[in-house]
Amino acid sequence: YGQIIAGNTAYQQGLNGKTSEDKVLINQAVFRDCGAIFRDIEYGVITSPNFPKPFPIPIRCQWLIEAKPGNVIVIYFTQFYLRDGFKATEYAFFVDQTLNVGRKELGSISFDEETTHLISNQPMLLLEFEIYDSFNVHMRSMDFFLDVYGFNITFEIVPNAANSKVVRRSDACSVYKCSFTGNCYATQNFDQYYCSCFPGFFGTECEFGPKCNPLHTINDCLNQGFCRYFRGSTVTTCKCNGMYEGEKCERPKLDVQQDCGVKQSSCAESCYKSDHSTLSEKCNCPKGVSTESIPDCISNAKMRYIVSIKVYDSNVDLKHLDKSRYLEIKNGLELAILSVLKPYLHSMSSNLKILEFKPGAVITFHFFHFDGEEETIKRLFQEAIKHGRLGRFAVDKSFIELEKEPVLNVVSIEISEESPIPENKQLSIACLIQGSSSAEVIIVSWFKDGSLIDFNRSVERSITRSLLSKNENGFYTAMLNIAKVNFLDSGIFTCLANDWSFAVNKSVAVEISRAPKPLIIPIAKTVYEGESVIIMCYAPEDSKRRKFGYNWLKNGELLNPVQENEIVEDLYPTGSRIIHKAWKTVTFTCLISSSLGTVSKDSVITVLPRRNASILFPLCASEKYEDVEWSATAVNAEDVQLCPEAYEAEGEVKRKCLLKDSTKVKWDEPDFSQCITHQFADIKRKFAMFRLGYGSFSATSILVELKQYVNSHRLKHCEGESIIHFLRIVLPYLQSVQTSASELSLAAGYALDVLSSLLDTKGSISKHSVLSSLHQLIIQFSLLCARNELFVQLKRDNFFVEIVKIDAEDKLLKFPLKYSHSSIENIYYSTSIVAVFYKNLALFMPKHFLIRRDVSDVEYQIHSRLLTVALYYNPNHFIGNQTGLKITAHLKHHNVTEVSH
Questions:
Q1: Cα–chain center distance at 326
Q2: Is the CATH number of domain 271-297+408-513 2.60.40.10?
Q3: Which residues of 245-264 are buried (b: 16+ CB within 10 A; e: fewer)?
Q4: Residue 493 and residue 510: Cα distance in Å, rounded?
Q5: What does each C-alpha distance from 169 to 88, 153, 895 come to in angstroms?
Q6: How far is the C-alpha of 153 from the C-alpha of 127, rounded, in Å?
Q7: Is 682 left (phi over 0), alpha (psi -120 to 50) or beta?
Q8: Which CATH architecture has domain 302-406?
Q9: pLDDT, tens digit (0-9, with 9 covering 90-100), for 100-157
Q10: How far is the C-alpha of 139 from the C-alpha of 386, rounded, in Å?
């Protein structure tokens, strides 16, 4: 390979000129046993000492690469894991730091800058590696690059670009090119660079793995987009097809503030231009708008010309003709007018329209043509009617009126705040419209992500629209006002104006920012004295922007890594980690700062003494259970882990370590109530969008999807509780929204199906408060089903509901009811009696429970099915005990033998 001069001796004699700084370094025992000079060599490898293990600190190394005239030096940062301490300088001639020519600094190299290669056009390249402090100098990326140090880079000496087009290799790779899920290597003879993927990942750039696997159709992206790993195993991104965009390809692609590709065209992104037409550019309509309502698009350079002529017989009142005669005359006149205009205007059929028949047999029509043509058009009609005929119609040759006004155009669309807009701020979107002289003719519709906004559905916040009068420049302003923006308001807003059956639109992108949701690993951990603990904290939403700041508190006090024993390192692409040697129980708090403020998350480290630990502090052993790796946990403590991969990232699952007897411990069942699957999260997102007035789905369709999800998904312990919480949000919306009784009953019926399915899985609900909520939801959704009915029976697999509405008279009712319909004056404001018979609700309650009576405790067991009777008025106001409601239960006696297991 040529001459390689390596070792400390070469540096002492050739590269290192002594400086005053060196005296300090020598006193600190700087490591120098590294470096080399490369001459007469085509390619090579430069590696930090002990790579990829830790190198000595402080350290100072230098490598000098020499190239023959006509060649250039190319460095490839195949495995480069430094944030600081590495720089490159090129020279025309170099002996040492004091004797050199043509010095040019190429700058410091940091992996933060995502550098893949460096080209030196001078014959000598000096690489300097100097680190005096290990504080935050190493690249750290989850999950595979948390314990790597230094670098292993390659170089090649190739012909200059003046002699050859090939300078930089097209197959070069780096830790970035390999998606942080593989290593970049060169073959032994340097004829190929490639990514060697870590287990579970594959692809030429290691871009596929467990969460993005096209071989098994695992894809988190929507609308035929495909996902890939981007910056490590925790960050994926979606590549959308040409029709969709967004983080998950969730919205139709609209070219914001652009027009059809036609210069000065008012046809915005929903239009396309016909190949053979100058005036009839057709509209590709947004969802919810038919082609009949948006027939054509028109050019900004055109004007609307309004022409009036008079038929010869002024005594004919064209306005009061019968329909068939009216259409006959109208169609005949249109053909006659078109025969006049067509030779001049070419294709006119979609723009010509007779507007009205005025008294005195005056016909007014309009069409669209370029500005400045009024004299030509007037002469054209004067010539056509100079003989008093227009086709087969006799006309007054002396009567012709011509006006013009600007054609419909959406001039601009602007938002009141600069993106990204913080949540809860007010937002106004202004759409500037040029159009007809009469505002009554202009109809403005608003869309979000291609779907028509339903202003009636937004019942929890104010979202309004208005059309303001013309300003001094002759423009109308259509306003969309949102009182408090939500993160789900992010997307494309479109203003569509319709005037004389022509439509134009423009769109603007709105981005809403929200406070970060910090993730910390571990959330809780039990260790023995002297053990090292690594705590990582990051915000997934910052993985692409990388704008958040990270700090740590230790027991509530700001941690200073310079003074404390902890090692603090930045994580890539975002985050921070602490390496802590534990001697006593401590709480670390991760602080994440953004433009919206600071949020925090705790990690509690419980430290046990090593002496007699197994006797004094028994542990529940670490294990994998329900797809979660549980850490060893002290008795009466709680282990907290992130939810498994099938769930949203920010969720937590908890599990207690219980004392079984005086010396033995056991794990309790885990609590998955905070774990939300991706499918359920999408259902919740759809309903949140629905409540804001967005999307083309309905409450019923969302509840149908929820029913299908519950029936197809195996619920883990307590996982049903998040579904109960969601239905508690759905209920008041259905109670307040204006919709038909049949639609309301249908939606409520699907909610009851979901509640019944939850009772199929023992353990899906554990907390008594949530079980009580389930009970109340069954009653309330049943009342919605019976809103316009006198008597209703609702049968589900796990409960049976009867509702009867009565007037104020005394009634004696026996359940199950045999009720005949009777007349009640106001069914809505009548009193409803609800009885619920449960099949298996007792399975979700404790087998034994105590009730204190005076000074003693009485133990109870449930041996019967559960029954509820409740009284409601209008229709969900619970009357309670202030009325004379008396309930008598007749129980059929039977013997029960309890079998202990």
A1: 56
A2: yes
A3: bbebbbbbbbebeebbebee
A4: 7
A5: 20, 14, 85
A6: 11
A7: alpha
A8: 2-Layer Sandwich (3.30)
A9: 888 999 999 998 888 889 999 899 999 999 999 888 889 888 788 888 999 999 999 9
A10: 87
Domain 3-168, CATH homologous superfamily name and number: Spermadhesin, CUB domain (2.60.120.290)
β pairing state of 597-608 and 524-528 = parallel
Other Cβ atoms within 10 Å of 86 Cβ, number:
23
Q: Which residues, 6+ apart, have CB-to-CB distance to 517 below 8 Å?
A: 539, 540, 541, 599, 650
Token pair listed for 9: 């001796």
Contact 174, 80 (CB under 8 A): yes
**And the tokens for 756?**
């019944």
Q: For residue 518, is the peptide bond before it cis, meaning its omega torsion is within 30 degrees of 0?
A: no
State which amino acid sits at residue 882. Q
Rounded to whole angstroms, how far apart are CA atoms 563 and 52?
28
**Surface-to-core class of residue 892, CB atoms within 10 Å of its CB (0-12 exposed, 13-18 middle, 19+ buried):** exposed
For residue 260, the model assigns a pLDDT of: 37
Phi, psi of 15 (to 5 degrees): -95, -35
pLDDT digits (tens, 9 = 90+) for 369-425: 777 788 888 888 888 888 888 888 888 888 988 888 877 888 889 999 888 899 999
Q: Domain coordinates of the chain in residue numbers? A: 3-168, 271-297+408-513, 302-406, 678-882
Q: Which of 554, 418, 421 lies closest to 485 in space, CA to CA? A: 421
- What proportions of the chain, in percent to the nearest 5, are helix, strand and coil? 20, 35, 45
Enter the pTM of the model: 0.74
**Which residue bears the tokens 């922007």?**
545
- Phi first, then psi: give them for residue 679, nearest 5 degrees: -65, -45
Which residues of the chain have a pLDDT value below 50? 1-26, 164, 257-300, 348-349, 823-827, 896-901
Q: How far from chain centre, in Å, is Cα 336?
A: 57
How many CB atoms are closer than 10 A to CB 123? 21
Only one residue has tokens 């690489």, namely 127
Total length of the chain: 901
What does the alpha-carbon distance between residue 891 and residue 901 come to, in Å, rounded to a whole number? 28
